[in-house]
Structure formats: structure tokens, C-alpha cells
Amino acid sequence: MSRTRLAAPLEPMLARSIESLPRRSGLSYEPKWDGHRCLVFARPDASFLQARRGSGLGRAFPEVARAAGELAAREDVVLDGELVVLAPDEAVLDFGALQARARRTGAGAERAARKQPAHVIVFDILELDGHATMRLPYRERRSLLEDLFARLGLLAPWTLCPATTDPETAAEWLHPAWARIGCEGCVIKPLSAPYRPGERGTWTKLRSRETAEAVTGAVTGPLTAPTTLLLGRYNTSGTLRLVARTNPLSAAPWPARSERSSHRARPGIRGSTHASPRGGSPTRSSTTGASPRSWSSSSPATPPWTWGASVTRCALCGPGWRCPPATRPSSALRPGTELYRAVLRRLPGGYR
Question: 218 falls in which pLDDT band (50, 70, 90)?
């Protein structure tokens, strides 16, 4: 480690998107959480919470800023992680609440902090006791990070991000159930790689993906060259309800009446995607950002989908259209390093 004190703003290391999970040796895998990037400068003289693009987060998240000051009194350290907010009384990340909190300051930020406190899921350590650690290989930085959590007994709002060298465990993080609690996929890091601020390429990321069938009930723009598709699913009363609208389409041939496609699951609606406020059964499309949390799934969808004499099957639940409700754990998260364990226990197979 070199005797170098890092200064904010510091460009975080970024990840490049890939299409499949690498399974070779020498890699570490971490869940990719649905939050805001956050660099924590815990300094005895002055602490600072930095967003990805360099702005300060302390005014919007005063409870985390105070925790950073308390951490600085025990250890001079710079951490990299993901700032997240939980849904009330549930082990589910709430990206909408996080965005709302990011816009508040002053008394409003303090009220929001009491109602829905933020957590920082820490996955890297960039400086320790005045020594920059970025040139160290990831495996050594991870060891220092785990030692920091164990030695100081860090509790909320700090949480140690899970990590594994087992690709089968990483593949589980791509399961739809993980997307429903706020995990977008996984990040893959070479064990031998240093931390290079601003670089995108050494780290890679793979987002969760699911497929489902939907009915193209209408379009915007001309029929010969539609701009967007309005997608529908039947609800329990047999009524076809609008559940999503695609992003603008490319100049491709007009699709068949019933379209099966996929998208990268991401909690929260993004871009120009729209979901019906009246809900309906789940649907997903290659160009939608509709998420499990935007679905209405209080009861299963029973009517079959038909076009003339043909009957399609639900890609989510198979024949019978017994679509299950989205996974929404009801137990509150435990503090500190128990946060992610509480989330994992709600998933199929439990915590490992």
C-alpha cells in the first residue's frame, strides 16, 4: 500500500455489460444492487459522501453522513459501495424511495431518514489509514474490507456486499426472485485486478433476464411502421388490461400478433416505458423497463390467451396461467452486516 491520501471527487471504477456469465477460474462475483453509487470518504477532519459523478450526497442522506463521521473517528478509510433504501417493513430495495430521498434536503431529508433510512452496501476499499489500496489486487482489497467489518463490528448503515468465486452461486443471483428484491444481476471482477478509477472494461456486469408472453393490443404510429407497442395481459375477470408500453421501436418488420420477447429485469419503470395504473397480469418485453414491482399480482391470472383457435402458454408459469404473486418478503431487514443475509433468507433455497 502506498502512503497516498485520496481526494474527492474520485471517478469510480465502472463495469462493462456482457451477455453471458463467465465461468473460468480467477473471478469473483458480486450481486449488482439497484441503488446509487456512493464513495465514502471517512476522514477525521471532514467526511464526504460522493455520488458517481462527483456531487455530494450528505445533505440528502444525513444519517449516512453522520455514520461516516462516526466511522472516521475509528478508522480513516475510503470505501466504494451502493447506496440503497428499503421498502418499509420489507426486505426489498425501493429505488423509487431512493430517488425521492435524493431530492430532499434539510428537515425533509431528516424526516425521510427516520421513515426509510438508507444503507451502504460496501464492495471495495480504496484507502486505509492514509494508505491507498487501489493498486492492490482485488483479492487483497476484499480481505482488507472483510477484516475492517469484522474488526470494527460495523452495523447499519454499513453492509458488506456478498462475494463468491463460485459461478453457480452467481448464477442464482440472476434468478427472477433476486430481481424482485432489488438485485439487478451480478458484477464480475478478476481477483488479480487493481482498482482503476474511471475505467470500464476490467469489471463486467450481467443483468438479470426473463421472458414472458404478452398481447400486442394496440400501437402508436402507423400500422405499417409502428412507433411503440401497447402490451396487454388478461386480469382475473377476463378483461385485457394495458400493462406496458415499449420504448420506441427500430425500423424492423411488424411483429406477429402475439409476441414473446425478453428484457433485462430492473426494478422500477425506466425511460419511456409505461405500466397501466390498473395493473393486470405480469408482462415483459425486450424494450420495456416494466418490473415485477410495477405489476398487480394479488391473484393468479386464469383465462387462457387465444388468437383464433390457437392457445399460447405463459412463459412464467407454464400451462394453466396460474401466475404466482411477485416475491415480496414481509420481514424487516436486520441492521449492519445482517442486512443482506436477511434478504437472502427470503429467496428460494435460503441464505448460503
Answer: confident
pLDDT, tens digit (0-9, with 9 covering 90-100), for 146-191 = 999 999 999 999 999 999 999 999 999 998 888 888 999 999 999 9
Residue 114, C-beta contacts closer than 8 angstroms, at least 6 positions apart: none
Angle between the N-to-C axes of helices 106-115 and 62-72, in degrees from 0 to 180, rounded to the nearest 10: 80
Q: From CA 247, how far away is CA 289, in angstroms rounded?
A: 8
Count other C-beta atoms under 10 Å from residue 23's C-beta.
13
- Strand blocks (E) in the chain: 14-17, 27-33, 36-42, 48-51, 77-85, 118-128, 131-132, 158-160, 183-190, 200-207, 209-220, 228-234, 240-245, 258-264, 306-307, 310-311
Tell whether the model's pLDDT for residue 231 goes beyond 50.
Answer: yes
Residue 349 dihedral angles phi and psi, to the nearest 5°: 95, -15
In the chain, domain spans:
14-207+332-345, 209-311
Give the C-alpha separation, 345 to 352, whole Å. 8
Grid cell, residue 206, equals: 450481467
Q: pLDDT, tens digit, for every residue of 250-262?
A: 765 544 444 433 3
| Mean pLDDT in residue range 335-339 | 41
Active site residues per annotation:
32
Q: What CATH number labels 14-207+332-345?
A: 3.30.470.30
Helix, strand, or coil here: 150? helix
